[in-house]
Amino acid sequence: MKTLQQSFSVAFQYPVHFTQGIFQQENPLIRNIFSANLNGYAKRKVFVVIDDGVQKCFPTLHQEIKNYFSTFNGSIELCGEPLIIPGGEFSKNDNGLARQIIKAINDFGIDRHSYVIAIGGGAMLDLVGFAAAIAHRGIRHIRIPTTVLSQNDSGVGVKNGINAFGKKNFLGTFVPPYAVINDSQFLTSLHDRDWRSGIAEAIKVALIKDASFFKYIEEHTTQLLSRDMATMEQVIYHCAELHLNHIRSGDPFELGTSRPLDFGHWSAHKLEQLTLYSIRHGEAVALGIALDSTYSYLSGMLPERELEKILSLLKTLKFELYIPEMSFHLEDEQHPLNMMNGLNEFREHLGGVLTIMLLEQIGRGVEVHEMNLSKIREAVRLLEARSK
Amino acid sequence: MKTLQQSFSVAFQYPVHFTQGIFQQENPLIRNIFSANLNGYAKRKVFVVIDDGVQKCFPTLHQEIKNYFSTFNGSIELCGEPLIIPGGEFSKNDNGLARQIIKAINDFGIDRHSYVIAIGGGAMLDLVGFAAAIAHRGIRHIRIPTTVLSQNDSGVGVKNGINAFGKKNFLGTFVPPYAVINDSQFLTSLHDRDWRSGIAEAIKVALIKDASFFKYIEEHTTQLLSRDMATMEQVIYHCAELHLNHIRSGDPFELGTSRPLDFGHWSAHKLEQLTLYSIRHGEAVALGIALDSTYSYLSGMLPERELEKILSLLKTLKFELYIPEMSFHLEDEQHPLNMMNGLNEFREHLGGVLTIMLLEQIGRGVEVHEMNLSKIREAVRLLEARSK
């Protein structure tokens, strides 16, 4: 019996650009990305996929993209018409959409050194990212996230996926994008609810990593509520930076059992499902933050004064702290509609021992491997009482 | 306009074990693999998939596996019955098989820290590896390759995939296995053709990397032809070692345009397709080696004496140096059945500029970015003439 031990590291890098008006002729960013990588190539191919929600708000986008690429003098070939596909969480349930994108990659002869650009919200970026990741074992994928949530959180990370068997992200991979471009002009058309809900992920990362960022958000609630773009750009930039730092210094492909950026997410995912996705991901995350912060307080980890600050910030930003789905069959641990099932689903998706991030102070998270179900119930009742 | 630059490395490791009789009760290998990784777990789940070709040759395997796991006292749970699926290249065309494996992963609640074991030939391992790689963004996957070819080449590497749109490995990922177990007992049942054809990949890696290994194979043709297991184990071990070293020191996830281990493969892939997979992958690789070695000689890179040694070794090991499919429509560059189309398909799969490995001496490959079509024709005719 003999053994050879294989061991190697793979280096990954990608830029996250912050800009405005990415497809305006005078914006050189995309031109620069492509021309910097022509080595040996006569031309590069690009295939563009657009979220139909974005296309509706920016009806000329389609044409702007064609105009933008038409000035490249043949060094970049835009393949066919941009493909417009449905966005939102439901699009990730549709295996046919992934197949449609993969088929286009084949039809246009997009190779590993050509590009698929996706423009849209987080769910749609996950879907296109998955298709690009498995075609030819990985096409270059450029993400242009168009919501607060995707610009400051999922869109800058290394995951993609689609839903299967009724489970969120059951199929997916860890594959870094080739580049991310955050264009704040896309945020102008967001509904108020989407504008605000994306702030939940910024609060989340502030709570577990950066007390001064939490303070910044606290001090800028008026600007955020009045949709001041400079403030939102600042929040997105800093949140994306914390997210990128975390991936870099942590466990980017989640080979271990810990996933600290998922603070508040075990219940959030389940509540999205229990509400049939009628609440936004950010709204669900705000509920999850309220719940796990309250649980941290009830466990004697987080001082009451800090809990009050957290709940108060969420309320000021008009997040609900409680919805009835949190109490569904709360006493019946076996009931499939009991939110606490989310704990086991969360563990199963990540694998390994249950690992949940809680708070010991604003700006500092701490991981535990068990949650007390009675204390979760107590936290739910406390939030219910407050919300009356 | 601002930019954040993301940059990180991910470390991967996995063992390649060489053993005999992996599911005999007294073999502790699998028991050790699992018990070393129980940390915090009451038990681990294991789901086993078997190539039907292997099951036919080892009809008691199924039962041996159940017996083996039954002695684990509950620390390892074998999920359901081992799933038996068709092997061979055609199985990779069947998207339904990947879905069937993914569905079983879901049904059995296999999480990222549980295991899928695949026992079979290279094609079947590629298929199961792909399913395991995308379920939950990656289940732990243990490969037990059962052919010479998979034990010394594809089975020890980091790629998986299935075919789509008539293209080999159109869908796939780069994901290292959790462990590889090469059990030489599986080789005893191979047909002579499969036993021999696997040697082609060993000759390939010797030609581009290790002249002394080429010499070893030259000096042991009698033993190899008479199916001496100790010699074959030596060839497999050394070939796997060269393969692992190459991955480690090169570009494991093929982010660049070079793929030196694919010496002889541009025509091999195409010839497999043109013969409707009636020739073995190893036989196709032997043809590709003969062709690109002859081309290297005709280009003045490889001395004639060395070409003679290569062709003579291939002949001694009973490989064909020429098949009629190499000449189909050879003068008509536009014809879809012209083998030379393989050049462009090879480039498209890998992306970037065409990069082909040729030889300047036995044991030393050299990459070129262009092949002269007339010289390829000349090489084909030279091999045709020799084979008469």
Please summarize what this structure is.
Two copies of one chain form a homodimer. With 388 residues, the first copy, chain A, is α/β, with parallel strands linked by helices.
List the helices and strands and how they pair.
The structure is a homodimer of 388-residue chains.
Chain A (H helix, E strand, L loop, with lengths): L1 E18 L9 H7 L8 E8 H6 L3 H10 L5 E3 L4 E3 L9 H13 L7 E6 L1 H13 L5 E6 L2 H5 L9 E3 L2 E5 L7 E5 L8 H6 L1 H11 L1 H9 L1 H5 L3 H21 L15 H10 L6 H18 L5 H13 L24 H10 L5 E6 L2 E5 L4 H14 L2
Parallel strand pairs in A: 1-9, 2-3, 2-4, 2-5, 5-6, 6-9
Antiparallel strand pairs in A: 7-8, 10-11
Helix pairs in contact in A: 4-5, 8-9, 8-11, 8-13, 12-13, 12-15, 13-14, 13-16
Feature tags:
homodimer; 388 residues; alpha/beta; 7-stranded parallel sheet; two-stranded antiparallel sheet; 16 helices; 11 strands; 44% helix; 18% strand; globular
3D architecture notes:
- Two copies of one chain form a homodimer.
- In chain A, 44% of the residues lie in helices and 18% in strands.
- Chain A has 388 residues and is α/β, with parallel strands linked by helices.
- In chain A, the strands form three sheets. In chain A, strands 1, 2, 3, 4, 5, 6 and 9 form a seven-stranded parallel sheet that branches. In chain A, strands 7-8 form a two-stranded antiparallel sheet. Chain A has a two-stranded antiparallel ribbon with strand order 10-11.
- In chain A, strand 7 (162-164) and strand 8 form a beta hairpin.
- In chain A, helix 13 (281-298) crosses helix 16.
- The first copy, chain A, is globular and about 65 Å long.
- The termini of chain A are far apart.
- The mean pLDDT of chain A is 93.
- At the A-B interface, strand 1, helix 4, strand 8, helix 11 and helix 15 of A face strand 1, helix 4, strand 8, helix 11 and helix 15 of B.
- Strand 1 of chain A pairs antiparallel with strand 1 (2-19) of chain B, so a sheet runs across the interface.
